[in-house]
Amino acid sequence: MLxxxxxxxxxxxxxxxxxxxxxxxxxSQGFExxxxxxxxFTRSLKPxxxxxxxxxxxxxxxxxMMERVLDVPSQxxxxxxxxxxxxxxxxxxxxxxxxxxxxxxNQLELAILNLTMTNIRTVMGSMxxxxxxxxxxxxxxxxxxxxxEATNPWGVKVARIEIKDISPPxxxxxxxxxxxKAERDKRASILEAEGKRQAAILEAEGQKQSAILEAEGxxxxxxxxxxxxxxEAEAEAKATVMVSDAIATGDVQAVNYFVAQKYxxxxxxxxxxxNEKLVLLPMEVMGVLGSLTGITELAKEAxxxxxxxxxxxxxxxxxxxxxxxxxxxxxxxxxxxxxxxxED
Length: 344
What we know:
By secondary structure, the protein is an alpha+beta fold. It has 10 helices and 8 strands.
């Protein structure tokens, strides 16, 4: 049987164990405990093993020091241009001071949520619908600045505030779709008109360049045609001068050669026509023979020995109105050699 002393010792050991168990506190990473002594805050327990005075100190609040996400429920907002929209969002915040988060505000998450919703209505209600749809970054920045400044006394750092969805009414969405379609049709019409304008300008420029090049080509061709006609006229003039000199010196064979050449070229053109089935010769065909006789005489004079030449009779001028037989007889009379050669 245990005596009274043994019971006292066992009771004391049990009480000591209980006191040690109550005085040792283990704090997990990412959390902090607030310690209250007789109901007054004294200090915060950091992650790890901590000791407190049992029966005197107690843990007041367990604070999550990690960054947390808080969903902002949907709410209806009237914009500055009286458009009714539905907006929701999300808030990212972190507790930096466990004591302030515990004793400066009651229900920290609810306070941050209500503060965020109120400022969303304030900020977005002062803007037009078009600004809300196109300037979300600016809205997020304004909300973050206001809410973070308001939560500083609570020992809280608001990292980000993001607007997730902005939902206008269905009829307003349809009106915006029609407006967007009309704007795009307008831009398409402007671009099409601009394209046609550029095409017309380029086409006119091309026609202008074509006309300039064509005019330059005609000018060059005219210069070359004029030069060719000038050279042809010079050649014709020289030929005329040579024929005139031959007539002046009495060289009738040269005249006959010239006339016979033109006569034969004319007959060739008449006979080579595609629509001619019948060729009619002039009545003065003997004139052609007379001209050919003149060519023969010219060839004989060219190949005859100059030592056997007889002095030529003075040439009588030929008349164009005389018939070809008369011209032929007169040509025979002008030959410098005898009539025996003709008889042969």
